[in-house]
């Protein structure tokens, strides 16, 4: 059975990463997070694109069989900034023993209910990642999260601590470009495709900046892949990094 409890605090001493106003903003979206036509509709469209990249990265990292329906069987996965579990549930179906952590208690409560109804055993907890003594994980993901945290370097350090030896990390985030400002804030938020107030453009991170942040945390970033948009294809993986991008990282 899924649970939404917290584990005992750890003694990890790192900066606080949660912005209370960000947690409150996303917590208000919890009730309809799983509605593909609701306030998180864009995440529902984004999720298959992220999963395509993630599956390829998993197969390459562990040299698995691309035909295997459960390539993460026997492995543990941690999704940080998990929201109501849109990524946690597919990771569980890929065979992983999944833990999801989110800043908003409302989100993990909604996530636990949805997982239980779906027959999935996923552990969820709320609060600072550093506040939970949960060990290390073969796979660590943080999708569309680093642009929302108060201390990006501290956040990367927290992620690095949770990555097991030989493990794989995958992150995605908007790029700080004129195009991302025009489309993700100017257009998407104005037309209700993304809830207003979701993004602050100055918090977006360029690939070069993310590489430096990860390097300072002892991680090597892989080659970024763009997540682009076109009227014909919708959201899709691309060599165009100007809107959003997704990357792998490994211990140096």
Automatic annotation (TrEMBL):
Its biological purpose: O-methyltransferase that catalyzes the 2 O-methylation steps in the ubiquinone biosynthetic pathway.
Lineage of origin:
Bacteria, Pseudomonadati, Pseudomonadota, Alphaproteobacteria, Sphingomonadales
Q: Which family does it belong to?
A: Belongs to the methyltransferase superfamily. UbiG/COQ3 family.
Q: Which residues are the signal sequence here? A: none
**Pathway, per record:** Cofactor biosynthesis; ubiquinone biosynthesis
- Note one Pfam family from the annotation: Methyltransf_23
Region (Disordered) residue ranges read: 1-21
Q: Which Gene3D superfamilies match?
A: Vaccinia Virus protein VP39
Reaction(s) catalyzed by this protein? Answer: a 3-demethylubiquinol + S-adenosyl-L-methionine = a ubiquinol + S-adenosyl-L-homocysteine + H(+); a 3-(all-trans-polyprenyl)benzene-1,2-diol + S-adenosyl-L-methionine = a 2-methoxy-6-(all-trans-polyprenyl)phenol + S-adenosyl-L-homocysteine + H(+)
- Say which domain of life the source belongs to: Bacteria
| A single MF term (Gene Ontology) | lyase activity
Chain intervals with Polar residues compositional bias: 1-16
Q: Which organism is it from?
A: Qipengyuania vulgaris
EC annotation from Swiss-Prot or TrEMBL:
2.1.1.222, 2.1.1.64
Q: What is this protein called?
A: Ubiquinone biosynthesis O-methyltransferase
- HAMAP family found in the cross-reference section: UbiG (MF_00472)
Sequence positions that bind S-adenosyl-L-methionine: 50, 81, 102, 143
* GO biological process, any: methylation
């Amino acid at each position: 059975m899924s649970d939404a409890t917290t584990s005992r605090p750890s003694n990890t001493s790192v900066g606080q990463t949660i912005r209370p106003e960000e947690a409150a903003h996303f917590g208000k979206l919890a009730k309809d997070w799983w509605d593909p036509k609701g306030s998180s509709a864009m995440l529902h469209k984004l999720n298959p694109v992220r999963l395509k990249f993630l599956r390829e990265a998993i197969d390459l990292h562990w040299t698995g069989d691309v035909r295997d329906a459960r390539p993460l069987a026997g492995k543990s996965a941690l999704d940080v900034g998990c929201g109501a579990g849109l990524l946690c549930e597919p990771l569980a179906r890929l065979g992983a023993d999944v833990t999801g952590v989110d800043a908003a208690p409302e989100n993990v409560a909604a996530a636990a209910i949805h997982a239980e109804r779906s027959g999935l055993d996923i552990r969820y907890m709320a609060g600072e990642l550093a506040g939970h003594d949960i060990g290390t994980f073969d796979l660590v993901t943080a999708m569309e999260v680093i642009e929302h945290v108060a201390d990006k370097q501290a956040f990367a350090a927290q992620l690095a601590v949770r990555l097991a030896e030989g493990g794989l990390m995958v992150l995605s985030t908007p790029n700080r470009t004129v195009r991302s400002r025009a489309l993700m804030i100017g257009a998407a938020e104005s037309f209700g495709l993304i809830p207003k107030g979701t993004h602050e453009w100055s918090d977006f991170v360029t690939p070069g900046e993310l590489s430096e942040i990860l390097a300072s945390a002892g991680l090597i970033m892989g080659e970024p892949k763009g997540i682009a948009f076109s009227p014909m294809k919708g959201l899709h993986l691309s060599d165009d990094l100007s809107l959003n991008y997704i990357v792998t990282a490994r211990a140096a």
